[in-house]
Amino acid sequence: MKAIGTAKRQKEPPGSMKFFIDTADIAEIRDLAETGLVDGITTNPSLIAKSGRDFFEVLKEICDVVPGPVSAEVTATDFAGMLREGNTLAKLADNIAVKVPLTVDGLKTCKALSDDGIKVNVTLCFSAAQAILAAKAGAAFISPFVGRLDDTGADGLQLIAEIVEIYNAYPDFHTEVLVASVRHVGHVIESAKMGADVATLPPAVLRAMYKHPLTDKGLADFLADWAKTGQTILSDGKEARRSA
């Protein structure tokens, strides 16, 4: 793939890639939030349906656990309905980001909500042209679906590169590139190289990022060697004390 658009946008100081978790499973969210590596959550009606719980109850609980943006998606498809639902969702918590589809009515809703100071995540993005429109509509986040493009034989990561390059060219675009439909660690690494702002990960992918067989083997070797010394670092409040 041709490498393009790797520079960070100049309108913001260099920061770090943010990790959102793509789930509505509160147990998973609590567990991963304890790592301190979770910056936000993305949900959708399908994910919340899998929980078998009340829609609003789940969202409120997630917002209490994770202080960062929590994307909550509208289910209406017309502008008036999306706007009503978006305003209702935004009132649930200060960290709600209303999620709308990349349709004409979704873009209208994005513009209206953004003008009122509500963060909007425009989802189901599959082209750079769509990403330009979302940025002009004031979206806080654009969610290009990498994995779903890969499934069609297209190069999902090429879309990330194109969007980053375009956004870099326009300092007035404040939309963050949120890489969605992430299937594996490679998607995260390549997106980070390109300067994507956020990756939303299934819990399994985040866990896969810290796993490596050589890490496991190295730790096992270290512990085996340490056990042979008969020592302990902490025992009754004393450091480096030899075991009895």
Task: Describe what you observe in this structure.
This protein has 244 residues and is an alpha/beta fold. It has one domain: Aldolase class I (TIM Barrel, Alpha-Beta Barrel), CATH 3.20.20. The chain contains eleven helices and ten strands. It has helices at residues 26-33, 45-51, 55-65, 79-90, 104-115, 128-136, 146-151, 156-168, 185-194, 203-209, 213-229; strands spanning 18-22, 40-42, 70-73, 96-101, 120-125, 141-144, 176-179, 198-201, 231-235, 238-242. The strands form two sheets. An eight-stranded parallel β-barrel has the order 1-2-3-4-5-6-7-8, surrounded by seven helices. A two-stranded antiparallel sheet has the order 9-10. Strand 9 and strand 10 (238-242) form a beta hairpin. 37% of the residues are buried. Mean pLDDT is 92; it is low at 1-11.
Summarize the structure.
By secondary structure, the chain is α/β, with parallel strands linked by helices. It has eleven helices and ten strands.
Offer a few descriptive terms.
244 residues, alpha/beta, TIM Barrel, two-stranded antiparallel ribbon, 19% strand, globular, disordered N terminus
Distance between the termini: 61 Å
Shape: globular
Average residue-wise pLDDT: 92
Structural class: alpha/beta
DSSP E strands, number: 10
- Count of distinct structural domains: 1
Strand ordering within the main sheet: 1-2-3-4-5-6-7-8
- CATH topology title: TIM Barrel
User: Beta-strand percentage?
Assistant: 15-25%
Q: What is the CATH superfamily?
A: Aldolase class I
Helix content: 40-55%
Main sheet?
8 strands, parallel, barrel
